[in-house]
Amino acid sequence: MSRPAAPRVTIRDVAAAAGVSVTTVSHSLNGKGAVDPATRARVKQVAAQLGYRASRAAQALRAGRSGTIAFVIPSVGAVAEEREMLSLDYYMQLASAAARVAFTRRHPLLLPPPIETLDDLRELGVDGAILCDPARDDPRIALFEELGLPIVTIERDLGRPDHRWYVEGDNRGNMRLLLDHVAAAGGRRIALLSADSTWSWSADNEQAYRAWCEEHERTPIVEPTSLRHLETSAYDRACALLDRPDRPDAIIALAERYATGVVRAARERGLRIPQDLLVAGGIDSHQAAEGDPPITAIDLQPELQGAAAAALLVALTEGERPEAPRIVPSRLRVRASTQRT
Amino acid sequence: MSRPAAPRVTIRDVAAAAGVSVTTVSHSLNGKGAVDPATRARVKQVAAQLGYRASRAAQALRAGRSGTIAFVIPSVGAVAEEREMLSLDYYMQLASAAARVAFTRRHPLLLPPPIETLDDLRELGVDGAILCDPARDDPRIALFEELGLPIVTIERDLGRPDHRWYVEGDNRGNMRLLLDHVAAAGGRRIALLSADSTWSWSADNEQAYRAWCEEHERTPIVEPTSLRHLETSAYDRACALLDRPDRPDAIIALAERYATGVVRAARERGLRIPQDLLVAGGIDSHQAAEGDPPITAIDLQPELQGAAAAALLVALTEGERPEAPRIVPSRLRVRASTQRT
After folding, report:
1. pLDDT tens across A11-32, in order?
2. Which residues form a coiled coil (chains A, B) (predicted)?
3. What residues in B contact A95, CB-CB < 8 Å?
4. How far is A55 from chain B (nearest CA, A)?
5. A and B: number of Cβ contacts within 8 A
6. DSSP calls for B185-214
7. Are the C-beta atoms of A324 and A164 separated by less than 8 Å?
8. pTM for this one?
9. Domains of chain A (ranges, CATH numbers)
10. Which residue in A has a C-alpha nearest to residue B150's C-alpha?
């Protein structure tokens, strides 16, 4: 490992030149602690004269500040299974949008490996995090809070009703929109492949589905489906649904990739989509758009959600108190899977 | 900023307990420097007993090692324009694949802001980088080399013929495949919207295009197109091409989003695709797949390229000497834009 070409000015050099302690220099430069304005000004001037530039690594070590923002995907179990989340359109579009905002504000965006302990988190030396789809009482939020690091969630932690730093779509409204659309398309027995999780997104959707069924005097048909091995899990649940005597004539496949499993199950049973079975997705993806048939789905507009979350987090790391939560508009993408022509 | 709950075991504690120098501990634990095996083993044992865990930030500060891998997008000018790169399917799919590999190997993947100086790079405290589409003599590679950090490029730096740590597709073969396909589809005057850059990908494609034209005794029609504001730039160049007296009957739009600009220019002129004009893309994207019409394109399989680059870099950061370069297979995706039925 070669060393930097020139020895860099250290915080100690600045302290010596300014005749103050290293702590005072640190506080003066990162705007923390109680330092009288005159001293702070002098320290800043000396630091500038010496060409002192705090290294991010040094900052990270000293005060947990690195300017880096972590983008954390949902924890759904083993690493091998968690990798699947990293391959989903929704999270990658969120990450891409967050990276664009961070990039413009000159903050690095970090995609970390699983964070399980305080050490894991300390070692990342990040300034804060965007956490996607927190579980109820997500332990990772507690870790960030223990280190005093701001965290913005996409969707809410149902165990933390007071945490208002989140971004989400109008999940209940979206589910009603989807149900009205599927019903208008001819769906009479509309089943829901719900996402078996404690995520607010899953809860909001299932709640709205049940409320809608009650209002429309329909019997809810809910199949909780695993968030691991999405396609296969959805295929299994869809098979169970389609082999029932009172077979549903419409299935709402909540999570990304669920629809693909449903289509497979329907095909094997000689059911045509949309003629014999209407299929709609709770979250859009390129797989849905490009599928055969293309699948009607809710587009949560992750590019807007990710940008809003990054802007919110950057503001928090810079000590502002921005407006929150932020509800991002969604879109219903109508495609062949619900169009009987 | 709250402090870590418990004081952590430091490298000094380990040095004291093992009766060796801090440097020896450092070298023993990160496998560097000359330490005799017995000492290395003892240090590791002591470190384990004390529950010592090197903090990534400390490592970054001490030796520029953080376990973090940077994923660096092409530099195409101002930050505002560079952001466009971060929104392209190709780079986001590369990043996603690299993140999955890094995640599994427990390395964080960093999407940094623009890297212009050694300080920028030092502050990131990364272990190495994957750099996409380097320009000829890309200055960022020099920065990494100055800090002795390994760098794997996706595509090659044409100014560094000796740098063999790269991953790429068979660009020349892909262009020939595309040209043969477009010619078989009826293209007689096949024009190329080339990407105006010093990237090896651009050079390989243009070279293969010219060679193919010569072999087939056709006059090459090349319109160098900017990599900034991709759609608009391609639209402008396509307008120029389509208003020529000897209007081409086929256009190969090399870069992502170019095809969209070509389609717009053709529409405005009442030209039908594929009947009056064949359109094909040099790189696939969801925009191409979902476009109206869907566009035939070369799929460089970024998910394979990104995984290969990450595996290569991780091996290098761990001191191995893996096989390189790695040529990743590509696929021709035939769609309506070149199918006259």
Report:
1. 777 888 888 876 777 667 766 5
2. none
3. 92, 95-96, 111
4. 5
5. 157
6. TT-SSEEEEEE-S--HHHHHHHHHHHHHHH
7. yes
8. 0.76
9. 11-54 (1.10.260.40), 69-169+303-330 (3.40.50.2300), 171-299+332-338 (3.40.50.2300)
10. A1
